[in-house]
Structures are given as structure tokens and as C-alpha cells.
Design a protein that fits this description.
By secondary structure, this protein is α/β, with parallel strands linked by helices. The protein contains seven helices and eleven strands. The protein binds phosphoribosyl ATP and magnesium ion.
Length: about 210
């Protein structure tokens, strides 16, 4: 038998919605990755194994072929740039929007606009596309705080219900991107492991279509 396919997953909100999708496609981890401390988990059928990593590391593992496939948010993939990756399937889960947000009323910026974000590459491209030069401040979380304490004039962040923005007196002022979780595949693995990947892809596609119906 050929070696199992390696699938990169991250803990957190995408995993909660991914596990039922994988289970319905016949792929069930032998241990619950949410509870286990193991970083490599086999699947029951021995066809796959999971590597459990940080969300932002998923494209890196897959691009280098350390994992054949992975599941990551489009936000993470856009920030990575996607070199070396195929993105054959929108899983339609973990949906949200990426937006520019500011305090209300939106203050007129006094100087070059300062934008705080976890997504400097996306933010750079967003403003470059409108020929605006901005100062980008890289943060690792709690972006909503930045405008409240004068660190930034704007943030680029994800919004789902809008509750977090509202609770902090912020509002979305421009859309940046529609986000959902995507399956990504290493380009070489797509050729070398074509049959196994295709089988998994078809099963997942059927599940996604059913969930969307
Ligand atoms: O923990 P680690 O640093 O490894 O990664 P992470 O914190 O990015 O992981 P996780 O599990 O929190 O999120 C992973 C992915 O979930 C993201 O990359 C997105 O693709 C997706 N996702 C979907 C979201 C949201 N919806 C979301 N609402 N990720 C984050 N949020 C946050 C948002 O940043 C904001 O702080 O939720 C807050 C807004 O929610 P509302 O409902 O108040 O609007
Ligand atoms: Mg987190």
C-alpha cells in the first residue's frame, strides 16, 4: 500500500467545521485532534494522516510538500500568496468578510493613514490598488484595540457577526475580501498522488455540494 496522504489542519474554528465534513467524506482521525497533544494523528482507515499546526503555517507546509493537502482560510492563503499551491475546493465553511474598519464617526486622517492588521501583504495590495500610500502596522491579534488607543486610524480585520466591531465602537467602512476555508494541494503531490487526491477531492466536493443544497 502507498504511504498515507498527509493533510495539514489547524486547531480553532476551522477544525470544528472541518471534522464533520471529513467524516462525511469517510476520513476520521483515530484521535480527536482538539483534545490530543499529538501533532501527527492517523486516520481510522490508514489512508490519511493529519498534521496539526498553526493556521498561518498551513500554506507553508503544503507549499513545501511536508503535507500533500491542507485546509486554511482564504485570508491566510491570500496573505501567503499561494505560490506552489492549487486551491481546488471552496469548502464553504468558516465564512466571514475581511474589511477595513474605523471608529465612528470616521476621523479624517491627519497624516499618512496608519493601518493596523494581522494581514500586511493583503493590506498593502488593497491600498496599492487604489494608489494610496499607507503605513502598515503588523499586529498578531486584537486589532480592534488599535484605533481605540491611537495606534492606528484603520484596521484590516475579519468580521463575522459584527459584534466585536460594535462592542468596540468600530464599523466596517470598506470591503476587502469574502473569506471561507479552502482545500489546498501541493502542486507536485497533485501529479504524483493524483488518484488518492482525486478520490478525496470528489468525496469532499459531494459533501460541500450537499451542505450548500
Ligand atoms: O490561533 P492561531 O493564531 O493559530 O490562528 P487564528 O487565531 O487565526 O485561528 P482561528 O481558529 O481563530 O481562525 C482561523 C480562521 O477562521 C481564520 O483564518 C478565518 O479564515 C476563519 N474565521 C472565520 C475567522 C472568523 N470567521 C472571525 N470572525 N477568524 C477570526 N474571526 C475573529 C475576527 O478576527 C474578530 O476578532 O472574530 C472576531 C469577529 O467576530 P464577530 O462575530 O464579532 O464579527
Ligand atoms: Mg486563535
Amino acid at each position: 500500500m502507498s504511504r498515507p496522504l498527509t493533510l495539514a489542519l489547524s486547531k480553532g474554528r476551522i477544525l470544528d467545521e472541518t471534522l464533520p465534513l471529513l467524516a462525511a467524506a469517510g476520513v476520521v482521525p483515530a484521535e480527536d485532534p482538539r483534545a490530543s497533544r499529538r501533532l501527527i494523528i492517523e486516520d481510522m482507515a490508514g489512508e490519511c494522516r493529519f498534521v496539526i499546526i498553526r493556521a498561518a503555517d498551513v500554506p507553508t507546509y503544503v507549499a513545501y510538500g511536508a503535507a500533500d493537502l491542507g485546509i486554511a482560510g482564504r485570508d491566510v492563503l491570500m496573505e501567503h500568496g499561494g505560490a506552489g499551491l492549487y486551491e481546488p475546493l471552496d469548502l464553504g465553511i468558516a465564512r466571514c468578510r475581511m474589511v477595513v474598519a474605523a471608529t465612528v464617526p470616521v476621523p479624517a486622517p491627519r497624516r499618512r493613514l496608519r493601518v493596523a492588521t494581522k494581514y500586511p501583504a493583503i493590506t498593502y495590495r488593497h491600498y496599492a490598488a487604489r494608489s494610496e500610500q499607507v503605513e502598515i502596522i503588523k499586529l498578531y491579534g486584537s486589532m480592534e484595540l488599535a484605533p481605540l488607543v491611537g495606534l492606528a486610524d484603520r484596521i484590516v480585520d475579519l468580521v463575522d457577526t459584527g459584534r466585536t466591531l460594535r462592542a468596540n465602537g468600530l464599523e466596517a467602512i470598506e470591503p476587502v475580501a469574502e473569506i471561507s476555508a479552502r482545500l489546498v494541494v501541493n502542486r507536485a503531490a497533485m501529479k504524483i498522488r493524483h488518484a488518492a487526491i482525486r478520490t478525496l477531492l470528489i468525496r469532499l466536493q459531494a459533501q460541500v455540494a450537499e451542505a450548500g443544497a
